[in-house]
Amino acid sequence: MQWGLIAGLTLAAAPADACRLALVLAIDVSSSVDAAEDALQRQGLAAALLAPDVQSAFFASPDPVALHVFEWSGRYNQVTLSDWRLIEAPDDLRMVADAVSTSTRSYDDYPTALGYALGHAAVVLQRGPDCLFKTIDVAGDGINNEGFGPAEAYAAFPFRNVTVNGLIVNAADYEGEVNLIPFYTEEVIRGPGAFVEIANSFADYEAAMRRKLVRELGVQMLGGVPSGASG
Q: Are 133 and 220 in contact (CB under 8 A)?
């Protein structure tokens, strides 16, 4: 089965250190994203990770955040940009930012297989550190147009106690992407407190990513245990 192909991906083992949040960031490199837009999102993500307010959010607790970043497009096109790393000091964030900013695009001619991206992210979380909270943030500029969609991914992959947030790049100017915001709010985001952040263009990507990260990291400071979690 197609799902089994994703589930069989080999990912590096993560450290077992205690952490408060395992955060997966997924960026869209489908064919609707041109080279200039891709550069804006890579540099925007890297700059957001190093922004003072984002760093303050990362280090607001003595328990670290674990971070993983990958790019996605078609069914079988998910590539790690920065594997699991515990963010225990500013140098850790800088290493992730450097990995993202110096990365090169793996694919540029594939459609938007968002269900597969979500399935891949779920597998990444399963093989990552066992943090108190688990969040996937999927960024994109289009609706699913290849393979199974989000609903099928949520039915087939392990998403228990996982929050899925979205970052919409609301910049497409061609027919078919007019329902992007309802698609993300109704079909993509999932879990308690899940939300959508909107970038009005790829030039706005950094600012939107900063807002999103501060909000995601801040939620973990409210305390409590995820629904269904033991202990």
A: yes
Provide the 8-state DSSP code for 97. H
**What residues have CB less than 8 Å from 9, skipping those under 6 apart?**
78, 120, 123
Task: List pLDDT tens digits, range 167-220.
Answer: 999 865 544 445 788 999 999 999 989 999 999 889 999 999 999 999 999 865
Distance CA(5)–CA(131), nearest Å, equals: 26
Residues 21, 87 contacting (CB under 8 angstroms): no
**Whether the Cβ atoms of residue 31 and residue 111 lie closer than 8 Å to each other:** yes
In a 10 Å sphere around its CB, with 0-12 CB exposed, 13-18 middle and 19+ buried, how is residue 147 labelled?
buried
CA proximity to 188, closest of 123, 128, 112: 112
Separation of alpha carbons 85 and 93, rounded Å:
9
Domains, the chain, with CATH or none: 2-6+18-186+203-222 (3.40.50.410)
